[in-house]
Amino acid sequence: MSEAWIPSAGELAGFRRAQKLAYDCAEAISADMKPGMTERYVAGRMKEYLLDHGADDCFHEPFAWFGDRTAFRGLIAVKQLGGFNPAFYPGLRRLEENMPFILDCAPTVQGCTADIGYCGVVGHNAILDRLMDDLIEYRALILEKAKARRPLSEISRAVDALCAKHGYDPRHKAYPFETLAHRIEKLKDDGKKSHLKIANFGVRNVSELLRDRIRGAREGWNPIWNSSEASNHVPTPGLWAVEPHLGFRDVGAKWEELLVVTGDDAFWLDDDVPHVRRWIERGLWKQAA
Amino acid sequence: MTPSQIVESGGIELAVYTWGKPGKKKPTIVLVHGYPDAASVWKATAEILAERFHVVAYDVRGAGRSSTPDHTAAYDLEHLVADLAAVVDATSPDKPVHLVCHDWGSIQCWEAVTTELMEGRIASYTSISGPSIDHASYWIMNRLRSGSPEKIAQVGRQLAHSWYIGMFQLPALAPALWRGGLDKLWPTLLEKVEGIAEVEASATQTRDGANGVNLYRANFVKRLLNPQERRTELPVQLIVPRGDKFMVQEIWDDLPQWVPNLWRREVDAGHWLQVSHPALVAAQAAEFVDFVESGNETPALKRARVREERRGKAHSGKLVVITGAGSGFGRETALLFAEAGADVIAVDINLEAAERTAELSRLLGAQAWARKTDVGSTAEMQALADWVAQELGAPDIVVNNAGVGVAGSFFDTSDADWEKVLRVNLWGVIHGSRLFGKQMIAAGKAGHIVNVASMGGFTPSRFMSAYNTSKAAVMMLSDCIRAELADRKIEVSTICPGLSITNITQSTRFVGSTPEEEARRQQKATQLYQKRNLKPQAIARAILDAVENKRAEVPVGVEAHGSRLLSRFFPALSRRLARLDVAP
């Protein structure tokens, strides 16, 4: 068990399929989003889409946040109970013109789990555009430091410092345990069409995270990657769902992708994701590469 | 003043005064006076404008040396516009003119620009203290219909300001007053009520006052009861004197719906600003004419352009200079002001950080500029002040916020350490207050200077001698200049933050420590402040609150309030506590 898991090429292909499904879902559902829809309705449609396209489990049920809820201000940012907060769950907020939104889903397909974050707007929002442009720097920074095998807490603090430089709030600190990223483990492909969920979280995936927590405590690493001392260790080989989430005033933006860490390297699982395509379109990608 | 020509219009002889000759590079500016004035009210302004423009003024029918119609109906707006058209045709037959109009002159020029009577003859319009009666009528109706107590109160306030209009409708009374001594009293009234010293008594004051009453009688009731929707595409500059005793400022709130190309500037002056501030009126009129002629919009005009989304905010149209704006309190203050409608000049020694603050301010709808300046350098601060004066004019608010930290034993604090902390923390405030305070005085602005000190200013401590001394000096400095500026209507506030999270803890110089030890202490200090978790936003909010409510001294955070009380009421205890060795 204490052997580090380094995913095989075949396993990575499976995770890539899951991540692509998750992003396809976000793009398909957001294309049909209209003012007046509630968070709950949109999250429900995402869930349907995932089930219709082969998802058999999840890390968590789809989330949808609209308007200032994207920026995790107010109730949704209450950090008591380690950050588990009922305000996270999709609510009755209705979408309006020029209102930013975030869709976040984490489907499991045949034992491979992805976890993605996708933002957009129906209409136009200058602040959201700027946040989404600036998110490119976080992707480059995290990769560069992970490749250099810098301690995870140091990387997380570098992200905090970049937020301060940009003038943004690091809103991922409102997630449970102020997480910048969390582990994703391979599950058994048992052929079942659905699996148990409790409080919108997939029991199998969360159990893996708890197991990692126990193992990590023994081996000196933390399956929750944040700025704390517990993450002061070199990147643990395996898969990490990384989710920098920026907030400025009433607007929040994030992406979430799987980072693959091997014994001596790190790379993003897939560069063909919506936010990267957007950066390429806007001519930002070259300078970052 | 003697008329240079007489222009005939509808049986009335109009006295016209001109300065200079029209030319290719000399646009014509036509000045139209209000009530109870004559063209002479423009004398000082016209002389300044004449250095660069062909300037025309005339006595409105019934006033000055123009002849008097024999019945009230002859004062109808359409005749007044025909008079203006006759003057324009006589003085600038080939080129459209730029109008600059005050009070009743402004009311009649609204008629000229929003109707087809003078189409193609007007290039731009600068309006001072006189709304279109039709616009005013809609303004009143919209507010009465809104059902909002606040808006209905606005109407009530405007009606209270317009008491004389009702009085003018009464037969005989007003003209009798003018003939019975008000004419002689008028200069004294202007001096007492408007604060305009040495008003030249007008030779025609009696008839200016008595005949002019007909302007109101011929137009007001008719227009108020039956207003037309009047619009114009022409570029219009609105100059709003904040101290106008005859207008509430809200009267202009609905103007953008009639005038899409609108620039609005507020000045700290009374109703007769062309008499009290002729240079200011001439400068703003000239700037607008130059822009319309050349298409070059100066930064000051860019700021003045009315943008829908910026209207009605607490600090709309204000210009704020903030030092140390690249991070911490400075950046948060810039963002709060930007959200509240102000435009921002972000000053920092780190240009990249200042640029970023300016960019974030723009995202919030403000216009913003970033400048690299070392506040401790006399030359650099002078250059900054010169740039601000030239590009944008005097600021309304200055926040002297830049600061550096130094900690450790007094005996380890070198001359260089002292110099650095005093240069930035004290001299930076001296420079900022002096340079921008001077600009506010020169512009006659009721501005506000905010100096960021610290609870350290009243909290003695054995390891903070240099820093706390610099902050105590800032507090005393602020108290002194507040006293000096009180009669200038310029406010001064001192902000005394407690243990708040900024970059200052990470960059504080710990004297008498090795570099490693210094780094450790910086980290410990930062962690201590993070535990306290007093956010820069709280200080920024306190700064806005100090400006909005004219507060002299604002401690921020419970520790700052506590220490202030301690130093005031238990100074001995405060001095005992200073001995505690609680250095990080």
What is the tally of beta strands of chain B? 17
Following the backbone from N to C, one meets helices and strands of chain A in this order, namely HHEEEEHHEEEEHEEEEEEHH
Q: Helix proportion of residues of chain B, in percent?
A: 40-55%
Q: Largest sheet of chain A, described in full?
A: 5 strands, antiparallel
Order of strands, widest sheet of chain B: 1-2-4-3-5-6-7-8
What shape does the CA trace of chain B take?
elongated
From the alpha carbons, calculate the radius of gyration of chain A and give it in angstroms.
Answer: 18 Å
Tally of helical segments of chain B: 21
The end-to-end distance of chain A, rounded to whole angstroms, is: 37 Å
Mean pLDDT of chain A: 92
Give the termini separation of chain B: 76 Å
Class by alpha and beta content of chain B: alpha/beta
Structure class of chain A: alpha+beta
- Stretches of chain A where pLDDT is under 50 for at least 5 consecutive residues are none
Short description:
The complex is a heterodimer of chains A (289) and B (584). By secondary structure, chain A is an alpha+beta fold.
